[in-house]
């Protein structure tokens, strides 16, 4: 019964580790062998396992996986496999930088920038033309708006006066002065129904009313016809102005193209003329160069013959500003009076050089003796240093032997007592399994 309980507890522990993600089966050199659990601990773990199993059964819900999540997981898994194949495959793995790929990227970037600059230049040219057209259209629209506003104002001043309004008689300040008197005659136009001057059926002014209605109808028709004609004229004028604007734009574009072509032709002509002038100048220089060179050679020969360079005059070597100076390029040699003085100076310099050489030999002999004494002292110091080093090595060897014995004893203790749990192959397989 005790063994069955222990087995069940261990099974629930494995399930708990699989669910919670805890893994304690990896080898750790610092861990020691765990002691055997007691009966009370085993029973407690068994009860905890049963409670955990009941809880999992209570919250267990069978849900179908989401296709989007499954597809995303599969895509990530494939991407991870591809990355691992690129990293762990030594044949396809690239160490360092791909110079060809970088150069191709740089060329593509330069080509893209050049294309963008050409597009921007073309866009700027088109934008300038569009701005000119827009300015002309805005100017024409402003002129049309001004004329329309002027016509509207004239119409208001002529046709929409205060006295022509229908309700003007209601608030006319001169209404009382303009009213007719109460009674002038029996057939006055100011007599209304309350005056009882005539009755229904008499209608004495029917012909006049009909004539006035016809005149009013004719006036309204004429005004409508005039408005329609004016609208057509305005539309025709707008179309004509639009056509003129387009024609002007086309003519301007043609003029600009002709001007550009003429400038290009003039520039090419000027360049051709300049090239011709340079070619003619070069030909003239090449033609005159042998003659000039021949004249220069003749002049140089004449100067060499006539000047003091080839003569034996010793006065030409004297400097014009300082007589004791000599011009090297004109000097012809020493005169007989100068040679004994030069020899005396040379003998004095020779004796001085000999004395200086003897002094240097004495100084070198002194330095050699000093170097020999220094070398002998250095040899004595080296002998003392060798003796001290030999004594130090003997002491260091004995100390190292003692330290090696202590380290071997410590290593034997670690191998035989501390590190008894050796790592398995499963422990090494958990490393280097991901590309991250």
TrEMBL record:
InterPro entries per record: RIB43A
UniProt-listed GO biological process terms: flagellated sperm motility
Residue numbers spanned by region Disordered: 27-51
Keyword set includes Iron: no
Keywords, alphabetical: Cell projection, Cilium, Coiled coil, Cytoplasm, Cytoskeleton, Flagellum
Predominant place of localization: cytoplasm
GO cellular component: axonemal A tubule inner sheath; sperm flagellum
Pfam families: RIB43A
Location in or out of the cell: Cytoplasm, Cytoskeleton, Flagellum axoneme
Polar residues bias: start-end ranges: 40-50
Family to which this protein belongs: Belongs to the RIB43A family.
Subunit record text: Microtubule inner protein component of sperm flagellar doublet microtubules.
Protein name: RIB43A-like with coiled-coils protein 1
Gene that encodes it: RIBC1
């Amino acid at each position: 019964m005790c063994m069955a309980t222990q087995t069940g507890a261990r099974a629930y522990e494995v399930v708990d580790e699989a669910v919670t993600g805890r893994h304690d089966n990896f080898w750790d050199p610092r861990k020691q062998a765990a002691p055997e659990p007691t009966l009370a601990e085993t029973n407690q773990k068994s009860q905890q396992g049963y409670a955990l199993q009941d809880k999992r059964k209570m919250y267990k819900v069978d849900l179908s996986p989401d296709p989007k999540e499954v597809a995303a997981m599969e895509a990530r898994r494939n991407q991870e496999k591809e990355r691992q194949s690129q990293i762990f495959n030594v044949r396809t793995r690239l160490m360092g930088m791909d110079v060809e790929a970088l150069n191709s990227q740089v060329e593509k970037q330069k080509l893209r920038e050049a294309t963008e600059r050409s597009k921007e230049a073309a866009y700027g040219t088109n934008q300038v033309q569009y701005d000119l057209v827009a300015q002309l259209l805005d100017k024409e629209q402003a002129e049309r708006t001004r004329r329309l506003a002027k016509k509207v104002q004239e119409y208001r001043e002529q046709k929409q006066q205060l006295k022509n309004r229908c309700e003007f008689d209601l608030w006319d300040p001169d209404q009382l002065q303009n009213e007719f008197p109460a009674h002038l005659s029996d057939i006055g136009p100011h007599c209304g129904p309350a005056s009882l001057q005539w009755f229904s059926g008499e209608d004495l002014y029917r012909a006049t009313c009909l004539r006035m209605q016809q005149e009013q109808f004719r006036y309204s028709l004429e005004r409508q016809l005039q408005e329609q004609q004016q609208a057509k004229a305005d539309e025709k004028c707008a179309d004509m102005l639009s056509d003129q604007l387009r024609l002007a734009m086309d003519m301007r574009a043609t003029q600009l193209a002709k001007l550009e072509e003429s400038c290009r032709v003039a520039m090419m002509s000027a360049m051709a003329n300049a090239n011709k002038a340079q070619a003619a100048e070069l030909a003239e220089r090449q033609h005159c160069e042998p003659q000039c060179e021949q004249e220069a050679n003749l002049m140089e020969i004449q100067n060499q013959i006539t000047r003091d360079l080839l003569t034996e005059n010793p006065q030409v070597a004297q400097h014009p500003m300082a007589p004791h100076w000599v011009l090297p390029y004109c000097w012809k040699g020493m005169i007989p009076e100068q040679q004994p003085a030069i020899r005396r100076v040379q003998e004095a310099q020779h004796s001085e050089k000999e004395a200086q050489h003897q002094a240097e030999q004495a100084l070198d002999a002194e330095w050699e003796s000093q170097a020999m004494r220094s070398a002998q002292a250095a040899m004595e110091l080296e002998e003392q240093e060798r003796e001290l080093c030999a004594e130090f090595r003997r002491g260091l060897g004995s100390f190292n032997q003692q330290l090696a014995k202590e380290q071997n004893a410590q290593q034997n203790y670690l191998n035989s007592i501390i590190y008894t749990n050796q790592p398995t192959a499963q422990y090494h397989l958990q490393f280097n399994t991901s590309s991250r």
